[in-house]
Amino acid sequence: MAFPVQFPTGQNTLDEVRGKKLSPSKYFNARLFCVDTRFASDQSYLFFAQFVTETHMATNSMSIQMRKGKPITSDGRKISSKMLQNKQEVEKLITNKDATRFMQPLRGTPAYWEKTLKDLNAMVRQLGKPTFFLTFSAAEMRWPEVIEAVKAQQGEQVDFSQLDWNAKCDILRSNPVTVMRLFEKRVDALMTDLILSPAQPIGEVEDYFYRVEFQARGSPHIHLLVWIKDAPEFGDLQDDSVVIKFIDQYITCQMPDPNADPELHKIVSEVQLHSRNHSKSCKKGNVMCRFGFPKLPMDRTILTYPTPDDDDDDDNDNNDQQQSAPKNKTRPRTSYKR
Ligand SMILES: [Zn+2]
């Protein structure tokens, strides 16, 4: 807890008395974005910073809830100290979410995600079904500029093409803060410079929602929902051809021509193909591949509608997921990546 490497003289810590008040998040921002990478490169320090910031936010949020005055349960009863000494009453407060509401502003807590889910459901009610569900994974191992930026911060230069997998991992691990910031910038650029740009690569965006998730080894990816203006709704039309025309306008599953665009061909072959060996996730439920790969080639787009049998399968899937929920939480699907 003393972090002697970061604070050899014991000065400039968070709890030091300062002329100007400094919030933990401002303080840690300055530490982690500092040109001196002693802070950002120490994983224990990162967890310490997160712990202190979240504790501070939780305490703040609690005192706001208390100051709001009327401590009343959602069924309208006044919360008294007598009530809090009764085990059954406290359990009831927890089940009604009265006891956990203060955690709502704290990113990542169940209360936070519950509110996010409600907001998202409100979007669906207002805007209808989303048009696209897109997943974008970070490919730090393929981004020379991320590796080079981390090294440059440490005052060194590297030749990306000479690095093997382990060397790249070591470099990325040496400053997770920079790696994460670059990912965030890329997501921003993906949204503003591409998806929301006047070029409208997937149509005119009405609204969108995304969530960042992390794979087991810490690599981030986003799940993105996009509502496109005037998109035809699947299953709503008598004529499928309108939907098919819309899909064909924006989606292709063709291999790019290796002669016309060798670079694109290489990228698609390496990261956009379902692995021939399948992933662990593919083989869940004792099947070769629960996503049904390899699929037969098709020369045109067709729409398939759920049948009662498919519904049964879905139910089974959900049950499977619930049973192994903790595992899924920490390790989202990785089937689309090596
Ligand atoms: Zn598979």
Automatic annotation (TrEMBL):
Superkingdom of the source species: Eukaryota
Ranges for region Disordered: 302-338
Residues in Helitron helicase-like domain copies: 28-226
Compositional bias of kind Acidic residues: 308-318
Amino acid composition bias (Basic residues), ranges on this chain: 328-338
Protein name, as recorded: Helitron helicase-like domain-containing protein
Protein species of origin: Larimichthys crocea
